[in-house]
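User: Look at the shape:
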Amino acid sequence: MTIIGLPALVGSYDNLIWILYHQDKAWVIDPGESSQVIDFLQQHSLNLHGILITHDHQDHTHGVSELLKHCPESNIYGPKNSPLSAYYPQYKALQEKDSITLYPGYTLNVLDTPGHTPNHISFLIMKFCFVGILYLAQAQENF
């Protein structure tokens, strides 16, 4: 599995959109924008399998609609009690101790991490924890 961070909202929020991919399947974490994600998926012949959301702020969710136009079969996973669940029928609410198998041998675990928002969640996979606001590591890792 490869993890890569794509710069987003440069000059304002300076976020990273995380893409986790293996073979032809990709998962995206907190897509505040969509164009660079769509470009990356096309350049690497990847199919978007799911969108993971840590919290409901626009700088982490604004790209969801456009990604779903390009990949309508994708599911969205995010915190329970999210307003996104009212807009997207494919939204799946997550909470502490939930897990998602992204690929064989790679399971993502969900942690409740309220603070930045009341229903904020984080995603733990192997030695990496995606918390939505802070991530300490290189912008790309290969396994």
The chain has one domain: 2-142. The first strand starts at residue 2 and ends at 8.
